[in-house]
Specification:
7-stranded antiparallel sheet, alpha+beta, Alpha-D-Glucose-1,6-Bisphosphate, Chain A, domain 4, single chain, 164 residues, globular
Amino acid sequence: MKNFNWTTFTKRIAVKANLSNIYDAWTKPSEIEKWFLSHANYYDEKTNPIERESNIKKNHTYEWSWYLYDIVEKGKVAEANGKDFLQFTFAGECLVDIKLSQQNEYVVVELTQKNIPTDDESKQGIRLGCDSGWSFFLVNLKSVYEGGLDLRNKDTDLKGMINN
């Protein structure tokens, strides 16, 4: 595995949807909770909460929670152009880029996570763990926005599933 890139990965998925709806799926607290998070809190530069139906902006911060996990992920929005690009910190100092492009009736979502540390814990937990997690959540984004079905497991008796 000496040629394996431990510092970055990219995932792509085509979602049959409107570009502005998919941008909102990433940038509105009420929308990101439909497919990714159990709860999303965003704050402006003065730590005031932003409205649940408002799009996040550059320099906003976030606190994210997931179903069945007791962790709270905190980070910052590094870029948000209001149309087709978003960048935020994730898993410490990693950066996640979300690039959206319209191709016929599909929005291609390209997610790149980069700046992943190369210590053994980060290789396993961030590089491999986030790769797996983003793969599922991107499929769930497609499912929710194309058909309305949320594939996440929310049952506390069924921990350790690929869909949580």
